[in-house]
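notes to self, project folder thing:

trying the whole complex as one job this time. last attempt i did each chain seperately and stitching them together was a nightmare. two parts in total, labels are on each line so i dont mix them up again. if this works i'll redo the older ones the same way
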Amino acid sequence: MPRVAIVCALAPLIINACGGHEPRETGRQSAAAARVSAPQDTSFAGTTAPVQRAARPGTPPRVLRSVAATSGPGYDRVVFEFAEDSVPGYHVEYTTKPVRRCGSGDPVSVAGAGSLVVRLEPAQAHDARGNPTLAERERALGLPAVREMKLVCDFEGQVEWVLGVVAAGPYRVLASPGPGRLVVDIRHRP
Amino acid sequence: MTAWLRAAFIVLVAACREAPVGPCPSPRVAGSAAEQAAPVVRRSPFDSAFASAGAEFHVPPALLKAIGWVETRWEMVQGAEEFAGRAPAFGVMALRGAALGRGAARAGVTPEATRRDPLANIRAAAALLDAFADEAAIDRSRNEQWSGVIARYSEIERPDGRAAYGREVDRALGGLPPQLARAPAPAPTACLPPPPPGSGGAPDYPPGVWRASPNFNARPSDSTGRVHVLIIHTCESNYTGCWSWLVNPASQASVHYVVSEDGNEISQLVHESDRAWHIAATYDCTLNRRHDCWLNGVQSNDFTVGIEHAGFASQGSFPASQLEASATLACDVTRDRGIPRDWQHIVGHGQLQPATRTDPGPNWPWIAYVHRVQALCGETVVDDSAPFNDPALAAAAVPAAWTASDTTPDYYGGGYRWASTQPDATDVASFSFRLAAPASRAVDARWTSGTNRSPHAAYAVISSAGDTLALVRVDQTTGGGRWRALGTWTFPAGWNRVVLLRRGTAGSVVVADAVRVRQ
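result (full assembly):
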């Protein structure tokens, strides 16, 4: 499993990628949400600081093919799944600045008191023919921690989502290969 | 080849017919690239596979070869791992998803072999085309009947995208003689009216192809909406993927122009007078040599025109033909919009939006690019600093005692030089330009103004023969940051020059920034 070993070496913040805790696909299920089984652990410390891992320069873009959000005991989970075996670089951060669409610069508002930005690069949510790979680009969730999520950028190799959260609480980021999935868990308020 | 040229023409017409609102196929950008042999007549690493798979599945080998060229330039793509911008595709034929599975099954090879093995990949593609041809019940001996099969193979949903794909296959097959394009074929009634000869029909840049994007709005009507900066981007994808995404309303992004990899085609997506959506950043003049700080906080789309280039910010170099086509376009835009061709007005996306963008990347050849834009627009600039000069055409000599500075903004290049006036000074800042033949040229000078500047700064215009043609005095206390006309003279061939004299009443300074010579 050299790929897993590399992920571990590069990203100590990826808690579960090496331990086999990450939910694995079982059986033939099409929806990404169905692939995300119940969280194994119901509490984690998490962080409110930025979490990031840069892609190697020259890495080809990953194609985002599904986004799923579920609520489990203690936290909400958002899963970004890619068409390839590994995840792109990512930068996850709470922001207090206005979130803007990366093309128009128009400000975007989301429900909730906090905005967690998830930037993926190099990545795209459309195929090489100009067709979107995700039909749903805004989603009202109403989960305990995550109220809403919006795709605010899919341009020049960057995909950016903003998650509207009830409060800017601790979160963690997990990555797993084959297919590449980036998991963002946001803790419920105590 | 004759038959295939005809087929290419039919592909073009058929693709056009399928485009209910799309533009008609247009000729190439005139003079933007040297003519080359059509890809199908060049040798490829997979010629024997194209031949054998074509024979096996009754698909013309030249068609397989042309599609392979369009899809991958005959590279073995391995999903996202090998070929940027074509993430879901595999192999020479860029098979993907269900199509890969279907072609593999029909060819009797495994999906894994189809992804990894060139022959299996080409056979699977041939089998897929064979299946499409069967389902469409085409007469395979009639080349024109393949056009629908090609469109289906493309998996492009948009009619104009399918048309463009057909055009790319056409080019790979050998292009289309202009006289053939004007042959009395049935008029493609579903197309927009055909553009005039030599035109791609784009509203602001006639050689370009007009592919209107819905992603734009109006610029502000006040001074913040005046177009005066050109922004250079890279798509982070290939050409077709770039423009076809930016005309999709789902993208919520756009740009005014997209230049293809080889520069053979330019798409215009948004009128220059409208506000395209290509840069998220609000303007911060500290990122742009403290130019136009009054615009700080203004959304940068309001006053800019964007040019995307097929390719990546990380690439090591850019094709010469792409740079030439882009420079030709940039000359046109700057001339039409009155945009100065300098370092504050032709800038990179990453420069103005460093938090999240780097494009067009560290290997965009800025100096050569701006020089080429200037040259195409008939001007040569001589800066006080050598790195900003084309040594074949321009050279400056400024004494070391003249102080380098960038304190006052709106200089040309990276800064300027100044010196205190003295009544008996003999030193000068010399700006030389070379002419290949005698010619009449207008000469402009640029400085940065301030209250301590000389109101009588003297420029001497000296021919390559050593004759002083004129002595022109200017007031450098005002009018800085712009080109100010000194006059027009007829110069002999060779290195002519304009020198700024230090001599003058003590108590002020003269500023040597740059000289421009234009036709």
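what i see at first glance: The two ends of chain B are 46 Å apart (CA to CA).
need to look closer tmrw
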